[in-house]
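Hi support team,

I'm opening this ticket because the web form for multi-chain structure prediction keeps timing out on my end. I have pasted the exact lines I submitted so you can reproduce it. The total is 648 residues across two entries, so I didn't expect it to be a heavy job. Is there a limit I'm missing, or should I split the entries? Thanks in advance, R.K.
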Amino acid sequence: MGGDHAPDDIVRGALLYRDIGGPAELVLVGDEARIARVLGTKATGIEVVHAASVVEMGEHPATALRRRDDTSIGVATRLVKDGKADAVVSAGNTGATMAAALLILGRVRGIDRPALCGMLPVTSERKATCLLDAGATMDADARNLLQFARMASAFMTKVHGVDRPSVGLINVGEEAEKGDKLALEAHALLAGAEDLNFYGNIEGRDVLRGLTDIALTDGFTGNVVAKTLEGALDVVQGGIRRDIFGGPLGKLAGLVALPGIRRFRGRFDYDPYVSAPLLGIAGVSVVTHGRAKANMMRWAIAVAERAVASRLVEAIGSTAAPAA
Amino acid sequence: MGGDHAPDDIVRGALLYRDIGGPAELVLVGDEARIARVLGTKATGIEVVHAASVVEMGEHPATALRRRDDTSIGVATRLVKDGKADAVVSAGNTGATMAAALLILGRVRGIDRPALCGMLPVTSERKATCLLDAGATMDADARNLLQFARMASAFMTKVHGVDRPSVGLINVGEEAEKGDKLALEAHALLAGAEDLNFYGNIEGRDVLRGLTDIALTDGFTGNVVAKTLEGALDVVQGGIRRDIFGGPLGKLAGLVALPGIRRFRGRFDYDPYVSAPLLGIAGVSVVTHGRAKANMMRWAIAVAERAVASRLVEAIGSTAAPAA
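Hello R.K., no limit was hit. The queue was backed up. Here is the completed structure from your submission:
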């Protein structure tokens, strides 16, 4: 029931996943009648579990989840807790998905704080960069950042097949002696972690360039960076649409430039990569974009399936175990 | 001597400023022979002061300034200290300009830490937003942020004529109870500061939208945001050039769309606003973009002149005085 195009595109994404033969079995959780309307006669093999309410946008997620046990994200997450599902996927409010994951599934033993991976489209040969923490944890310390780097490395390896993913620490300069207290401490810990492929410091401009597979920072800075990029792309895409391809001449130019426009859009089309599980949660809870349409939803389910099949949660647990 | 196009475009910017009748008297500081070559026969009314060396890009600025007293930024800043000039303007390494300003001019009495204002082009009716601190101070506390807000308000009022500039605190959500420890404390201080026009929290996506005149954050986050935006605009502009308007069809489309492309570029053409004085320094030291060409340089001189004429440094000093 979450996201800008729910439930229609969520349901359509599930159908798309089923129709291309995705291995996961699907359970749709939410308003049964509304879901049934979209499913129509195509419901074969898809289970529906009714949830009468949702966490409203204005609500404090944890409060809503404690007060009502019939929210769609609460019911779906409890299916995982109860072993009736292997993963939960949501395009809804990230705060609500995270609150449900923390309250119902809890943290992996040994992981002190969870992290949210914001997947970004990048222009290097990499397909996407995992920016984390995109806002799950406020006031992280250097040891938290080290754990985030390990969790993200496990995620990029297990789910996206990246061999020894490189970790860049977002900082105000490339030199090891640059940064605030947190960055300096984190740099020292990361440089000493032999299990990680630590690249060193990277700068803000390197994130979208895809200099590293993982761009590591604290949840405050990561959230601001992720939203800044989102805003910048919106502003630029709106400007291109209105300024360059608006008006009669612009429309003509747009027809001529169509193949190029498609190529340009393709760079920011990263439906297969946009979804990511909450890292550090004792279960697979995948967050996808609130703007998710059917195709993005289909890929979000695939990410969840790969996280389960590759035993990502166990892998994260083993990174948290004290070194031998 | 600083910046990508020095000394040629720096000199040309000075000539441009003089030729449009700008009120400031100009002193060019650097390699006398190279400057003379660009000035040619047009040197009327422009003084040249020789400086034999520069702070090299790889050098630690403060060390270079302590070791050599003939760097162009050192000599130029000392002209201000000695009362032989009212302001210094540089397109060189921001770190070197800042180190010279701190070492030679020092801080305004009562201001604990300096702040760097990164001026951003925005799409609202505002011309530009001052993002600060863009990296002058690491590990700022909430009282530092309050001072930054007051300094930026004085700057936007005095230099850009903005009446009661609005201050947005960059945070992970709009609600007052959102954020890390620093953001929560800063919010409380800002909300209680009756001399400020405090808007409340803003998010990363609001910065480029120009929701407020001032986007306030600590120097770590501000630096990362500024460089992230720079990188994003580079990536997008490169993509537009190559993908949409590259190739024969694209070139044709580009001809047809030319008025629109000019309109689009115009949005990011903010030469009059890009330069800003270092805030909290006991003198006017204006930083402009390393990419500055003559026109941007001309405007940087105008910003310096307005900062001097409007007594910005004194105004900042009076915001630091204990309230009556």
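A quick check on our side: Chain A has a mean pLDDT of 92. Let us know if the file doesn't open in your viewer.
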